[in-house]
Structure to design on (109 residues):
């Protein structure tokens, strides 16, 4: 049986950053949580998605990981910091909205 996995590349957040985002979310969207219309993502699952690869067969995963490791070994990647200073939302295909903090760069439509 062919096993398919949804693959994405993401940056993890520090536990402190995850807690800050969870506190912001809980304060900002208290009405949604109380009304039962929202299912908050557990703070432990917070991350910043860089790229969504999509459905990948498990047998191709090792090749993908090797390619990424080769890229990281070859390129110089500088550490940095991201500051989120605004919030926004984007309607998604499911006719719902998702809200997130962002750093002043408006996301694409």
């Amino acid at each position: 049986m062919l096993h398919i996995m949804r693959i994405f590349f993401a940056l993890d957040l520090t536990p402190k950053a995850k807690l800050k985002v969870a506190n912001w979310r809980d304060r900002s969207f208290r009405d949604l949580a109380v009304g039962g219309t929202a299912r908050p993502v557990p703070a432990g699952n917070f991350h910043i998605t860089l790229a969504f690869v999509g459905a990948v067969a498990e047998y191709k995963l090792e090749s993908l990981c090797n390619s990424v490791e080769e890229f990281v070994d070859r390129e110089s990647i500088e550490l940095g910091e991201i500051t989120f200073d605004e919030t926004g939302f984007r309607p998604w295909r499911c006719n719902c909205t998702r809200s997130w903090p962002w750093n002043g760069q408006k996301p694409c439509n």
In short: The two ends are 38 Å apart (CA to CA). Residues 4-76 form one domain.
